[in-house]
Amino acid sequence: MDPNGGDERDRQAHLLNTGHADEPKRQAVGGEFLAHILRIAAAKSRRFAQAKRPDVQDAKGDDELFHGMKVTTSETAGNSYCSRGQMDLQHKLEILADAAKYDASCASSGAARKDSRGSAGVGSTGGAGICHSYAPDGRCISLLKVLLTNACLYDCHYCINRRSSNVQRVRFTPDEVVRITLDFYKRNYIEGLFLSSGIIRSADYTMELVIAVARKLREEHHFGGYIHLKTIPEASAALIEMAGRYADRISINIELPTQQGLAKLAPEKNLSRTQDAMGHIRGKIDERHAEKRKPDAPKPPPFATGQSTQMLVGADDSTDAVILRRADVLYGEYRLRRVYYSGFSPIPEPSALLPIQPPPLVREHRLYQADWLLRFYGFKVDEIANDAAPNLDLQLDPKLAWALRNRTVFPADINKASREILLRVPGLGVRNVERILGARRYTRLRLADLLRLRVPMKKLLPFIIAADHTPARLGLDDDALRARFLPPPRQAELNFDAPPPPVSGDIESVRSGDL
Amino acid sequence: MRTVVIQPVFAEWRKSARELLALRVPPEDVLWSDEAQEPGLFAPTVDASPRAAVPKVPPAFLDLARSVAAHCDARRWGVLYRVLWRLTHGGERHLLAVATDRDVRQLQQWCKAIGRDIHKMHAFVRFRLVGRDEATGREQFAAWFEPEHRIVHLAAGFFEKRFAGMDWSILTPHGCAHWDGSLLHFTPGVPRSAAPDDDALDDLWRTYYRSIFNPARLKVRAMQSEMPKKYWKNLPEATLIADLIAKSSGRVEKMLRTELRPAKPAPKNAYLDSLRVLNTPERPPPDEPPQTP
To answer: Per the CB < 8 Å rule, is A144 touching B201?
Structure first.
C-alpha cells in the first residue's frame, strides 16, 4: 500500500491539511489536444512506414560450419518492414520465436528500478513485471523471446534446434533483433528482450553475438527495458560478466537434474560446469551487492540482479524428488531467483532417443506448487517428496497431500496457531495467513470472517478450529477423507471454445497419473 | 438524512467528508451520489471550508481511499465515509488491520480491482505510430484503451516513466493522457473513432504471437482468466486466437505421427572436440550437494 516504505508508515497524515496536490493537477492544453486528435485522424487514413535505419550487417560466414544446414541470413532485411524485407524478417521471426518457445522463463520482475525520464530512449524496469499478452497455451507473453540463430552444434535430444533436427536454420543479425525489440517495445507489446541462441562456432563466439545485441540496445539506443540473456556455461568468465553488465537477468539452463541424464540426452552439456558457472555468476551478483552497500564508494556499474534456470520434466526418468532436490541446491547454494519447470512437450522433429509421449501437464503444475512450498512456506524437500514416495501426488496439491499424511498436526486453531502452522494449513496462502494474524489481534475469528477472505472452505474446514467451528474428528479413515478432495470422476475442462484436447490419451493420463 | 452529490473524484469526496466529519454527521445519515455529469477536466480547487478540527487518520486509509475513489461502484463513497467515521469517532483506530471486517474487506476488494485495472492498462495499451514531430524529430504514438474504472490519472505515471523518449497519447472514454517530452497532461474522454485503428507493426507482432504459442499445451481457460475477452477487441493479436485453438490438435497429432529422427554424427569442429575432451575424463557427478562457490 505504502510505496514509501517503513518510515512513512509512522507518519500520521492530517486529513485537513492536505488540500493540495493530491490529484495530479496539470493544466489543460485544449488547443494542442485538438490538434493532436486531428493529426491522429489524418494518420488513420494512411499507414506510416517505419523510419529507416541503416543497419545492414554482413552475417554470412558460418554457413560452412553446419554441414549441410542451410542458414539463411539476409542483407535485405535491414531496410524496411515493407515489401521483401518485411517478408523475410517475418519469416525469420517465425522460426526463431518458434525455436525459443520451449523455454518457460518469462519473468520480467525483480530488476533494479530505472526509467527513461531524462534520456532519449525508452524503457523502465523495477517492480512487478507485466504480462502484455497471453497465448492460448496459458503462458504469458512479457518478453520478446527469440533465438539469435537456431543453428546449433549441440545435439540435445529434447530440443528442436539440435543439430540432428531437420528444421530450417535462419539467423538474425544483431541489428535486426535490436530493431524489432525497440519497435515492439514502443508499441507496448513487450517488457523487453529475452535473447538466447543456438551455439555456433564456439561458446565465446556465440556469447559475443548475444552481448552485441544487448550492448547496442543499452549504449546506442539508451534502452532501459528488461533484458534477459541466456548464457553458456562454457563461455569465458569475462564474457559472462559482460552479459551481466547489460542484462537485468542472466540464466543458464540446467535442463536435466542429473549428470547421467545429460550424458544420455545432451552429450555436450555437463552438470558440474553449469553449476560452476552459476557459482561464478552468484559471486558477481553478491560482489555488486556488497559494493552498493559501501557508504561512500562510487556507484558500481550495473549488474544483473538475479539468475534463473530451467529444468525439463519428463524428458528423462528423474523423479520429482530428484528434481526438487536439485532445485533446492540451486536455490540454496547458488541463490537462483527462479527455477522453471518445463514439462517436456512434443516437438515437430522428434528424436529417436526420447519418449514421444509427453508427461501430463499437471506434473509440471505440481512441481511449481512444491517449489512454492519450499520457497515461501517453510517446507523441506523431504517433507514433500522423498525416497519412500519419490513422486508428487498428481491428484492432490502437495500441501494437502502433506496435511493428509501428517494429521496429528491438525486441527490448527486459527485464533491461536503460529504463523508456521497456519502456513501449513491446506487452502491458506501467505497473504491470508498475514490477514488472519493481523485481524486476530482485535477479534476472535469465526467462519464468516474466513468466508470473507474467500478461502476455499471445503478444503480448509477439516483442518481448522475457529471460534464457532470444531471439525468432526479427523479420525475418518484415510480414503474417506482423501476421497473428499479428489476431483470428480469426469473432470474434463469445461471450455466450450476449445476443441477436444490435443491428444486423446492426455486427459486420461492426467487423471491416472500414468506417464 | 442528507444527500451529498459530488463529482466522482477523490478530492471532492474528501472535501465533503471533512465537512461532515466536522459536523459529526454519522454515516447512516448521509446518502452519497455521483454528479451525473462528468467532472470538468480537473476538480475545482478546494474552497476555504471551515477548518474545524478533524481527527487524524492513518496514511494507509488515504492511500486506500484515493484508489477506491476511482472505482465505479456507487456505494464506494458511503463505505469510505463509514470507515472514516469508525476510524475517527468510532474509536476503531486499528480498523484497517482487521482484514476480515466487512467494510475493510469491501474497500480492499475495490482497491484490488483498481490495482488490477491499472495493471491491465499497463499491459494491454497498444501504441500505434501516427507520425513524427517535424520540429523535434520525436516519434508520436497514440493508443485506445477502455478501462473498467476511472484510472487514467492513476495509470499515466507509469507510461511517462517508460516512454519518456517518445510523444504519446492514450485515449479512453473516461479521459485521455498525453505526453510531449516535458509535460504529462489530461483531457476529457473521447469516442473510439478518435483513435487510430492499426499499426504497420501489428502483422509482425501477430507473427510473433502465432509462433510463440505451443499447440501441445492448450490451456484456454488459463489464458482467459488473465486476458478476459473484454480486452480482445483492442488487442491486435487477439484475432488469431480462435484459429490457433482450432488448429492446435491437428498440429499435435502431426507431431506425434512424425517419424523419429536418428542422431546425426557430430561435425568436425574444434570447439566440439574440446568439449569432448572436457567431458570424457568424467568428473564425479555432483549428486551430493556441491560446495558453496
So the answer is: no
